[in-house]
Predict the 3D structure of the following.
Amino acid sequence: MPEPASAPHVHPYKRVAVMGTGAVGGYFGGMLARAGTNVMFIARPSTAEAISRRGLFIDSAKFQEAIRAEASSDVSAVANAELILFCVKTIDTESVAKTLLPHLAPGAVVLSLQNGVDNAERLQAAGIPALPAVVYVAASVPEPGCIKHAARGDLAIGGPANRRADLERIAASFEKSGVACKISEKIQVDLWTKFVFNCALNTTSAIAQVGYGSVAQNDWSRETTLAAARETIAVARAQGKRSPRSPHPVWVENGAGHVIHGARHCPRQAHRDRFAEWICGRARQKAWSAHARKSHPHCPFEINRSEVLRFKRNHPLFVHSKRTRRSDSYDGFARWLCLR
């Protein structure tokens, strides 16, 4: 179990920078700024201008507030930060790391708040001794400088024993701002567990443009989700990571914080052909239209899938396994949806 966040004597960080002000960076950085922390948001010009002009607006079920904060589109603005929240897309990790490195203050701590399982390792390879985190939040950016918070908003952080003091200061900073932040002794398991859900449940749900409950109610979609989960778990084990056991249908239906709890009790469609017709129609209309591809070239499905393939390419077990590639129902499910 995660440990309590921090001891009372730990002093929170006073100067924080957010590298990448999207939904994640905007929400967690905004919560720190709301609690009085000096936060510098590094963002695209339109977002930086909006925050500088009217503040960062967070629309949450608990509050709606414009939070005054500094913002810039110049990476050098992180120079005085004690803590940097690294919140860019996974596909941009290396390129942004190279840009960030020359501007880090001595002793600055970098926390990776990203999807994926090895962003902290990739940052370390680029010369930035980053710490990993698992992010649990449902948020979006309806317009520049505005964060729509829908659910949760907590973190699990971890790292080597010699970084314990840094972890406690990070946890103290977030706890002060009202964000639950636990120090986990099994952060790699936590990262891979979330990654399995992202690659399985989120992908099937995104392609079909339906909620988890609808995915869980049909035998075919549930089996496709399970196949994706099993593949991701196999990759985790090949990487030498501790990972969850092979999933059971109940695990899919009640997983991800019981988000689809009770779905197994709902009536399920009896005929796969009905489901095929329905899901293809929705996929054509929303997830795989020409407009969607042009507007979202790096959608979550493609990013998650590319991460799995990257791990597989780097491991001989998968490089030389034709059976793994041919039996990959995840690829078949996606390809079938695209070509219908």
Q: What stands out?
A: Strands lie at 15-19, 38-42, 56-59, 64-67, 70-72, 83-86, 109-112, 131-143, 146-157, 181-183.
